[in-house]
Here is the input.
Amino acid sequence: MRLAATRCGWWLIAALCGPLHAQSALAPAAPAAAAPAYQDHYIAGGTLTPDVSPGEFVNSDTGLFRSLRIDSVLSYIEPEGANAPPATREDGFILDAQWDTAAYGAFSADGGVRLGSSDRPGVVDYGTGSFSLHQRGMAFDDGWLADNALGDINTPLIDLAHLQPRFILSPGPMEGFDSVWHGPSGLEIVAGGGEPGIFDGIKIPLFNALGGSTGTLGAQWSPAPQWAFGGELAAARDTPLYFQPALQNVPASVSSERIDSTTGYLTAAWQTGASRAQLNLIDGSLDGNGNSAGAWLDAAHTSGAYTQSYGAFYIDPNLAWGNQLMTSNAEGGYYRVDFQSRRWLWDFDVDQVDTVSGPKSDITFVSADSRYQLTRDSGVGGVVNLRHGEGDDAWSVQGYVDRANALGTGRGELDYAHDSQLSDYTATLQQTWKVSAGNRLATSLSIDRLLSSSSATLQQDATIARIDLYGGGDLSAHLSVNATVQWAQALQGEAGTSRSADVSFIYQLTRSWSLLADYYENRVGSWTQLVLTSPLAPPTATAVPSAGERGVFLTVRYEAARGGHFMPLGGMPGGGAGRLTGVIYLDANENGRYDADETGAANVTVILDGRFSVRTDGNGRFVFPAVAAGHHVLTVQSDNLPLPWQLTNAGRTEVEVTTRGSTEVDIGALRMK
Amino acid sequence: MMSPRLLLILAAWLACGQAASASAAGFAAMVSPPRFELSARAAGSLRQVISITNGGSSSANYHLKTAEFRIGEDYGVTFQDALTADSCRPWVALERAVVPLAPGATVRYRFEVHVPPDAPQGECRFAIMIEGDEPYLAQAGALKLPITGRIGVIVYVRIGAAKAVVDVFGPNVVLLNGQRLPTLRVHNSGDAHTRMGGFLTGTDAKGVKYDFVPSTLPILPGEVRPVYLSPSRPGNDHPQLVFPVTVQGRLEWDDQSTELNERFE
Here is the structure.
């Protein structure tokens, strides 16, 4: 727009004030036109009934910002599969509230209450509700800030423990409290404790307590800008071990035995503008198995378009962080180089992972991934993975073409994967459709041919057609829809059908009242694709029993917000506000888009400006209903992301929210490599 | 007595620097999408929706009408109400002339384009203007100016097989925002607008390698426009070039491209 600044005319103001063809124009009143005005034509003579929404539910006054959303839910859920239990219900209430205070920081509360007592097949038990209250940004003298939480939350971790490219300390869910204090010189103190548990629920967030106890205490300090040191102690007593689900759409599980664990963690990090290194030491015991120790070093250096990462690790068997089982019994090293330019994107990894004790399992994993932008509208790419182990060789190749077309953006992809028991050929067509503003639609169609060389994986010998759809938008000013549908059917072989769907219609009755109707289905088929992603994850696809459930949900929603909106950093108080929505998803093909065949991440905490938080729903979607217009930063606590997924830089995403606008942001988690 | 030119600059400053408060006081609308790029065939029809939200704190009337638009030499945009000789606005039907909106309410405003059976291949271009009720007085210190808030949504409809036909000539070096930039001149002799793109690389007099990004401003049929080539390097999006500079690669527009190998000095 600065191009226009050299010459002036009355309408130049339009170009100065907005994108050239956004044409935001504020201009002096036009003089009386000399020529007769043109008379526009009107559809049906101008008699169409205007399609007008009731408007947003925010009312401004002089108080500080506060908002409330209450969902009243009625449901019917029907389990599917052999020996399925009777139908059940998940009726109840969902609460989401945020309010700002002048002296005690910002508060966020969320929770759910399930009414009735019917059980639902899944983990240990079906919880009856959940609740959490977060207080963030309570200021004290000398630059101290405190974040406190109680209820169904995750155990706290020092920031340095989150910055892990390879091995992570997984903060487990618990019913208890935590407190995190940030002070001068990068000082951070964390403490928390409670009863371990599991998050559950389809629409209503539920927490299922497991018994026993867990607690953690840690601190970190930065004595110089380049240096930071930290340490944390975690313990669990008389509680089951928690296992992250190996497959998407499968509930987490826990061990039948109860364990005790005590683990200490020390870390030192050094960072300049382009280089970073972090040394981590861990020591602990799990259920009386004796002392176990570990150390890992990660380093990275960026020079121009190249980033090199390397590290070495040694971790004894039998280590847990609280009641969360850690990746352990591994030693080795890795090297990775990334290159990024406008046209090229490639990386190369090599890993060596050996077992420390027990049956020998030395694995070499090599991965190369590249993408080349052929033209403005088209690009090609490919991925090669090689895994060499003790009788465990596997490899996979992928090639794809991306092309912008008249209907949107499409991708054609061919995959082949092979291990000692399976060969898996897949052809996929994906399309992100060009739709009108405010709407979205992506589809995926694939054919998967699984060839089994083992009678033990008979159900994996099949040809499967799969269709995925992800979309949503406004059907009218009152009615909107969100839909995620995945369906897979065996064309040949014994593989069971896999279906999942979440289709929501939202009808806005008034400014504050809405009706929601959802159809939900989650049926896991008896097959999975063969995928090689990491030396730490086994490549062989697992046949699982075919089971699932489906149901309908009817929800009455009340939303209200009042007050002058909180002041974003660098912003002005009392300004307008807009809606900030999005999805946390598992970016399986790492293309940075939420494709139809990808999955949202449920129960993940999304934090706005380090102050307000919400938790994602069963589809990974989140909403901040009223956010001050201006620049904001979203971060994500990846505590409940399924392994091996992680978010780069804590999912930090910068967004611009416009007054009464709706800003959509999708944040993709990547597989840890 | 203040000169008209000074008044003009002050008005521009008012409109930009005071945009937020001016919006709150007199005209606040959120419009999406900012432009349409559509295709149709002769005798075909299109129906599209513009989403307009009242961003103010009180109810407002929004007046909608079509207009001609022109992009000036400096990429400034002018709108005019009077029909031009080749205007396609008679093909356009709007939903209604005035839409009242409560604070925060959104209207899905419909418009249609009915292409006549005998319409020649080409491009129909028009703007839909969204205006507030009345001019209001914007104040900057002691100065008050009558301001009418308006937003223009540009609509391009490609009819039949219309396409841009581009000739690239140059090279040239221009001073833009204090930075000397290699520049091409592009003539569009086709019957549809286009925007340039592509992947260009080059080297300056110090031997430093750069990627060059062509400016993507629209080039309407019959026009000759400058296309600025902005250099970038990893970690530095605003490097200072040392001329002479050589640039190679493919310059792209729509589904066409041309090889470029030029020296700028």
Chain B touches chain A through 91 residues (CB under 8 Å).
